[in-house]
C-alpha cells in the first residue's frame, strides 16, 4: 500500500511513502484513477510531479516479478497513473480485460438489484 500521507489502515498492511519498496517482488500492481476533478485542495503540486513520484512505468516495474501484471479499473489518466507504453503492452496490462469484465459485473448486479431473486 502506498500513500503520500499517513492514514488509518489495518496493521497487516504495510504502508510505504515511496513506490519502490511496495513494488519489490510484486505479482500484480493496481493503481486507481487520480480524480483530477476533485483536486481543488491542491494536495499535489502538479500531475507531472505525481507521475514522477507515483506513476507506473517500465522502469518502476523492474523490481517486480518478471510476469507482473498491471491493473487499473479505468478510466485511466494516461501519463499520470500509468505510462501509455505500459498500459498498451499486452504482456503487462490487464486493464482492457478488467474494464470489460467490470462492465459485465455491474450489469449483472444492476439486474439482480432490479429483478431480485424471484424464486429462481
Keywords summarizing the entry:
two-stranded parallel sheet; mainly alpha; 120 residues; 5% strand; single chain
Q: Between the first and last Cα atoms, what is the distance in angstroms?
A: 41 Å
What is the CATH T-level topology of the domain at 19-95?
A: Rossmann fold
Spatial sequence of strands, sheet with the most strands: 1-2
Strand content: 5-15%
Task: Kindly name the structural category.
Answer: mainly alpha
Largest sheet: 2 strands, parallel
CATH class of the domain at 19-95: Alpha Beta
> What is the alpha-carbon Rg in Å?
17 Å
Strand count:
2
What is the count of helical runs? Answer: 5
Helix content: 25-40%
Form type: globular
CATH superfamily of the domain at 19-95: Aspartate/ornithine carbamoyltransferase
Q: Which regions have little confidence, pLDDT < 50, spanning 5+ residues?
A: none
Q: Tell me, rounded to a whole number, the average pLDDT.
A: 85
SSE topology string: HEHHEHH
Describe what you observe in this structure.
- By secondary structure, this protein is mostly helical.
- The protein has a domain at 19-95: Aspartate/ornithine carbamoyltransferase (Rossmann fold, 3-Layer(aba) Sandwich).
- The protein has five helices and two strands, in the order H-E-H-H-E-H-H.
- The chain has helices at 19-23, 47-54, 58-61, 84-87, 95-115; strands spanning 28-30, 69-71.
- It has a two-stranded parallel sheet with strand order 1-2.
